[in-house]
Amino acid sequence: MSNIEFWNTRYAEPGFAYGTEPNAFLVSQKQYLKAGMKALAVADGEGRNGAWLAQQGLDVLSVDASEIGLRKTRELAAERGVVIRTEQADLTIWAWPVSGFDVVISIYAHFPPPVRARLHRAMFSALKPGGVLILEAFTPEQLKYKSGGPPVVEMLYTAEMVIADINGAKPLLLEETVTELAEGKYHRGTASVVRLVLQRS
C-alpha cells in the first residue's frame, strides 16, 4: 500500500482518526500566533490543527497527501465558521514555498530517513525572517508505549536529529518528554515525544 493509499484508507473511516481538537503542544505555544499571520500546516491530515489556527485568525494553508483528509479539513473549518486553504501534495516532491509564512507547524509528520532532513530544512526555509516553526513528533522511546505513530524506529526522531536537520539554528524550545495523548482513537495513552520551537533569524 502506498503512503497516499494508507492515509486515504485511514481518513475514510467514520469520524476523525485523531479527533477534532488541536494538538495540546501547539495550543501551548499560542503566544507565537497573531491574527493575520500566514500559517503552513504540514501533513495536516483531517485539519484539526489547521482549523484551530484559522480560528485564531491566521491565514492557513493546509497541505496533505490525502484528498479525503483535506475534504474533512474543509468540512471541519466550515463547521467552525472559518476558511482554510488546502493543497493536496506529496511533500517529498512539492514545490516548497520559501520565506512565505509566519508560522509553520509540523505535528506528527514523520518522514523516512532519505528525505527527512531535506523536508525539515524546507519547513524552516518556508518561514519568513522572524517566523516560527512548531514541531512535535514521536521519539524512538515511543515504541515502548504503542500509543500511536510509526511502528519502526527509522521513522522516529530525537531532539538531536531534528535540530541537526535544520543546520543547528538556535531553538527557543527543544525537549524530549513523556506526555499523555487523547487525540482520537489512534493517539491515545502515554507517549514519548520531541518538541521544537525554532525562530528563523
What is the helical fraction, as a range of percent? 25-40%
CATH topology: Rossmann fold
Largest β sheet strand count, sense and barrel closure:
7 strands, mixed
How many individual β-strands? 7
- Beta-strand fraction estimate: 25-35%
Specify the CATH homologous superfamily: Vaccinia Virus protein VP39
Low-confidence stretches: none
Radius of gyration equals: 15 Å
Q: End-to-end distance, in Å?
A: 41 Å
Q: State the name of the first-level CATH class.
A: Alpha Beta
Number of helices: 7
Q: What is the average of the pLDDT values?
A: 96
Elements, N to C (H/E): HHEHEHEEHEHHEE
Going across the major beta sheet, what is the strand order? 3-2-1-4-5-7-6
Which structural class fits the helix and strand makeup?
Answer: alpha/beta
Shape: globular
Q: How many separate domains make up the residues?
A: 1
